[in-house]
Write a structure and sequence with these properties.
about 290 residues; mainly beta; 4-stranded antiparallel sheet; 2 helices
């Protein structure tokens, strides 16, 4: 600032000029995967010198991030742009094991339970597979009470009925989990495969990271366990009467557990792009089955 002493009328004009500007250099950060079917990488682009950029390597189901091409293992990784650079994320196939001809993954769950990599009726993780009414072991063309094996209506149950008001002619029993002969996983895959209980589905929900994604063009969740291994659950929807509903938007996976309070219902995992939860609904609906083994 300038200090003056006032002695008369005066006018002062301040003159400004444009300051010198320095153009910052721009550099290109190129990112890639060692195999696009293994995973993808984000963060590439053109940036001003000195910019901090986050690089993220995202493995597809069945694969794990190993390292960057320079040996760095941070993921996500933050770099400072100083020159043109190329970064390649290396992914590797996670270890899988076989049970009666079908793959499973150890997710590192507290119980030690192993989860299959595919639905019953599928040969790849992203395939929808077959749909089963609860307690039935074969897919069919029509899913309603008229074709249901264990009752022609919600109050006409003939098996798995904890309350007589829901049973045919007052029938009731003490069965709350599917018998092996009514378990779609056990019957179709053999070995020690079976459908998970509600408690085991809850363990999967509570102990894993669920990431909505698209795998080979199919929407669903990548479910990553505490040890970094993962499975993919496609949003396969469900079958009602003869119509496939909600495919690509929602996933419904049967457990082997009966809702003992409303025994015409059974429990299942229910998910959409913005939620993962449990639900209970009519047993005659056709839903997906993802097997487990110990």
């Amino acid at each position: 600032p300038r200090v003056i002493t006032v002695t008369q009328d005066e006018s002062y004009t301040a003159y400004f000029e444009k300051g010198e500007t320095l153009d910052k250099n721009e550099y290109t950060i190129t990112v890639s995967s060692n195999d696009s079917s293994y995973g993808s990488v984000s963060g590439g682009g053109t940036y001003e010198e000195g910019t901090s950029v986050t690089l993220t390597a995202t493995a597809n189901s069945g694969y794990k991030f190993k390292e960057w091409n320079d040996g760095n293992t941070d993921n996500p990784r933050v770099i400072t742009v100083t020159q043109d650079e190329s970064y390649t994320a290396y992914f590797e196939k996670q270890e899988t094991m076989m049970n009666a001809g079908h793959e499973y993954v150890d997710l590192g769950l507290p119980s030690g339970l192993k989860w299959a990599t595919c639905n019953v009726g599928a040969t790849k993780p992203e395939e929808y597979g077959d749909y089963f009414a609860w307690g039935e072991v074969e897919p069919k063309t029509t899913y309603d009470w008229s074709t249901y094996k264990y009752g022609i209506d919600s109050d006409q149950l003939t098996k798995y009925c904890s309350r007589s008001k829901y049973g045919k002619d007052g029938f009731s029993d003490t069965k709350t989990v599917l018998d092996p002969e009514d378990d779609a996983a056990k019957v179709n895959w053999g070995g020690t495969w079976r459908m998970p209980t509600k408690a085991e589905q809850d363990e999967l929900r509570d102990n894993c990271t669920w990431t909505w994604t698209t795998q080979n063009g199919v929407n669903g969740y990548k479910v990553t366990g505490p040890n970094g291994n993962s499975i993919f659950l496609p949003a396969a929807g469900d079958m009602y009467k003869g119509t496939l509903e909600y495919a690509g938007s929602y996933g419904h996976y049967w457990s082997s557990s009966l809702d003992t309070g409303i025994p015409c219902y059974a429990y299942y995992v229910n998910f959409g792009s913005d939620y993962v939860d449990w639900n209970n609904y009519f047993r005659h609906y056709g839903k997906s089955v993802r097997p487990v083994c110990q």
